[in-house]
Amino acid sequence: MSYVGPDFDPPRPRRTRRAPLTVALAALVPGALLGWVVYDAVGGGGSGQAGPVASSASSAPSRSASSSPSAAGSASASSDDGKQPGPGATKSDGVPAGSGSLKGKVVVIDPGHNPGNFRHTSEINRQVNIGTNSKECDTTGTSTNAGYAEARFTLDVAHRLRAILQKEGATVKLTHDDGSPAWGPCVNERARIGNTARADAAISIHADGSAPGNRGFHVIMPGSVHAGAADTRAIVGPSRELGERIAGDFVRVTGEPPSNYLGGGTGLVTRTDLGGLNLSTVPKVFIECGNMRDSKDAALLTSGAWRQKAAQGISEGIVSFLRES
């Protein structure tokens, strides 16, 4: 995540959203998603688009996705943790074998944190410029009560997501992979990787560390920031479109409800304090796939079968966005 550089590729105009998204969401979680209606978003597209009435920004989020508490490290998951790269998978800087509808599209996947961060506390604790202020380079992330680390979860989902998108023909790059680099990269470098790649879409994968009883997923979208090295004004609209599509497909494929503690039941949150979003010049969102400290969510997050569903849900949102962009 870095300064806004000359590699900025202006996002293309948004197109009309698919009407069936609202129907799919309401059918799955009717109580939680009553706010999903046809709307005319302020600063984000014309009328006749399905989405939440308003994106809710929390004044006191459970944790910052780019500044989370220490994790228990590298304990094993309670069930299958295989990466299952799938057909056509390559290294993160490789060219996909697929030749599907996303040929020519570039997706950057940012697995939150790094399994090696806990060995490099002094390095990840140093401050970096996120445009509006300074924050830690990175953190270790959270973990389940049994010790399954968020950094392991995010890398596993990233591998699964990469395989799906490559099969669709996309060129996919990870910000870090399998111990390279050994820690980090810092949040500003993570943004820079997406910017340099001129990504058509970028996503940072996380799992939350909130209180037990707080459960569900939420997608974090950039708010409008124009200060210091940060200028998100050009990506706010496209990022919101990306976030809405991912949220809709994630709940449909995984069955995981929208967060019951952030986002007002929409599964969508807008924030202006995350370097990974503030410094991005390409459409980008974060997703907190669930709460690792809640027993119900933890049972899902530690399941290899559910992580495959998570990757599938995220991929369908990205594919939908890229086909319409």
Question: What report would you give on this structure?
Answer:
- It is globular and about 40 Å long.
- A hairpin with a 4-residue loop joins strand 4 (127-129) and strand 5 (134-136).
- It is an alpha/beta fold.
- Strands 6-3-7-12-8-11 form a 6-stranded mixed β-sheet, sandwiched between helices.
- The longest helix has 21 residues, at 304-324.
- It has helices at 20-28, 121-125, 150-167, 187-196, 236-254, 275-278, 295-301, 304-324; strands at residues 36-39, 49-52, 106-111, 127-129, 134-136, 171-174, 201-208, 218-222, 226-227, 230-231, 268-271, 284-291.
- The model is unreliable at 1-97 (pLDDT under 50).
- Helix content is 29%, strand content 16%.
- It has 8 helices and 12 strands.
- Helix 1 crosses helix 5, helix 3 (150-167) crosses helix 8 (304-324) and helix 5 runs antiparallel to helix 8.
Set out the fold topology.
Blueprint: H1 20-28, E1 36-39, E2 49-52, E3 106-111, H2 121-125, E4 127-129, E5 134-136, H3 150-167, E6 171-174, H4 187-196, E7 201-208, E8 218-222, E9 226-227, E10 230-231, H5 236-254, E11 268-271, H6 275-278, E12 284-291, H7 295-301, H8 304-324
Helix pairs in contact: 1-5, 3-8, 5-8
Overall body shape? globular
Summarize the biggest pleated sheet. Answer: 6 strands, mixed
Strand order within the widest sheet?
A: 6-3-7-12-8-11
| Termini Cα gap | 23 Å
H and E string? HEEEHEEHEHEEEEHEHEHH
Helix proportion range: 25-40%
The number of strands is 12
Radius of gyration: 18 Å
Strand content: 15-25%
Number of helices: 8
Averaged pLDDT, please?
79
Instruction: List unreliable stretches of 5+ residues.
Output: 1-97
What structural class is derived from the secondary structure elements? alpha/beta
